[in-house]
Amino acid sequence: KDYEQEFRILSYPYYKGDSVVLGMEEKDVKDVCAIFLGHSIGEGNEEIDPKKMMRVLRKDQKFALTATLNLKNLAEKPEVLERWLKGNDVATVTDRIKTLLQGLPAVDKKWDKPWWNTAVETPIIE
Question: What residues make up the domain containing 36?
Fold first, then answer.
């Protein structure tokens, strides 16, 4: 709360009760928003193709869960996107994310422990 990072908390009720799952950092959220703002959903060369994403995500349920949780988080928190985007752009991004999510695989497996690589070194800024 002190660092205004609450928007990163992902809704995933199957994880350990005393822990939270953190999603993308602000810089990554901005990058994802730029992609969705600049590219519509479809099968063209310059579009975000749900079928291609489906093929990739079907191969790795853990990656699929991470991707869908983060995208859902953005779609469900337009007030966060309003920090950097205008109203029309927020609607464009959230609508495109929701459209994409409809075409992505549902992840049936539930994890209550980290499914991501926890051995990542975080640089210390002094």
Answer: 23-102
Whether 10 is in a domain gets the answer: no
Structure pTM?
0.79
Spatial separation of the C-alpha atoms in residues 113 and 33, rounded to whole Å: 29
Query: Is residue 82 in some structural domain?
Result: yes
**Which H or E element spans position 9?**
strand 9-10
Least confident of 41-50, 71-80, 88-97, 100-109: 100-109
Residue 124 maps to a domain: no
Q: Does the pLDDT value for residue 10 go beyond 90?
A: no
Domain count, the chain: 1
Ordered DSSP codes for 17-55: TT--EE---HHHHHHHHHHHHH--BSSSTTSB-HHHHHH
Cα–Cα distance, 37 to 11 (Å, whole number): 24
Residue 16 lies in a domain: no
Spatial contact of 107 and 64, defined as CB atoms under 8 Å apart: yes
